[in-house]
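Saturday, quiet lab. Running sequence design on the structure tokens for the scaffold JK sent over.
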């Protein structure tokens, strides 16, 4: 269980009060709450020790929520869009299996922009000939080299922008990946690059659902990397924390 700070009092003594409540030193509180909120202040596997700290922090003027990482939605729970189309009052999304998902624009609670970084580890094999003195002696100088196979590990990083549609009607979230989405629905507005097309798609969605909030904190430098490691992907955790924080602050 995570204890998350979504709002910090503006006065200079706030971090000292939080340190007194949590048992942390002031420097640790300051470090854990650095950058854009929400930020994880405490974690507890059982969660039993967080309730009292949360109540005391609330009384001290902090905005607080708790989050169980196991409840965080991932792409296994979401609709990963392959294409979409706009209709009056609704967006129709088609996933990779060809299934249609209708999302009324009034059901869109939050649109989040972000980036997902994927690291692929690849083992590269190569063969070269090396001088072998023992073999040269035994062969009378006829055979001087032998084949040697070497292996090296190469990490390839790819970054892909996305737009996440989070709904208030209990239906699964919808995620639109920059290079997985087909943009034919843009028609004459289609751009030369996938990133520009995703940006245009975001604009279309914001126009279609003007009441829905928009947030790009997950894509800002340091926001995701500032979260502690948990059993869930940090990008998914960040997306969920932003949604919960906006609900608390609403």
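Result came back. Writing it out in full:
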């Amino acid at each position: 269980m995570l204890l998350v700070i979504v709002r910090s009092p503006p006065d200079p003594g706030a971090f000292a009060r939080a340190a007194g409540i949590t048992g942390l030193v002031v420097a640790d509180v300051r470090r854990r709450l650095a950058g854009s909120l929400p930020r994880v202040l405490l974690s507890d596997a059982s969660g039993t020790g967080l309730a009292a700290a949360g109540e005391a922090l609330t009384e001290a003027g902090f905005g607080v929520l708790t989050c169980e990482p196991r409840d965080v939605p991932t792409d296994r729970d979401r609709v990963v869009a392959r294409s979409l189309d706009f209709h009056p009052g609704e967006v129709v999304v088609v996933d990779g299996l060809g299934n249609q998902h209708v999302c009324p624009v009034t059901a869109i609670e939050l649109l989040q922009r972000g980036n997902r970084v994927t690291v692929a580890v690849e083992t590269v094999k190569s063969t070269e000939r090396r001088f072998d003195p023992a073999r040269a002696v035994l062969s009378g100088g006829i055979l001087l080299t032998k084949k040697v196979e070497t292996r090296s590990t190469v990490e390839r990083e790819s970054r892909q922008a996305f737009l996440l549609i989070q709904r208030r009607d209990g239906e699964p979230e919808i995620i639109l990946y920059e290079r997985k989405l087909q943009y034919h629905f843009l028609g004459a507005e289609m751009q030369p690059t996938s990133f520009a097309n995703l940006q245009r798609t975001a604009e279309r969605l914001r126009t279609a659902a003007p009441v829905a909030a928009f947030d790009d904190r997950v894509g800002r430098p340091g926001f995701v990397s500032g979260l502690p490691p948990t059993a869930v992907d940090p990008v998914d955790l960040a997306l969920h924390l932003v949604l919960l924080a906006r609900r608390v602050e609403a």
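Notes for JK: Helices lie at 14-22, 26-32, 50-59, 133-138, 194-208, 234-249. The beta strands are 2-7, 39-43, 63-67, 79-87, 90-95, 100-104, 108-131, 145-167, 174-177, 213-215. Ask whether to fix the surface positions before the next round.
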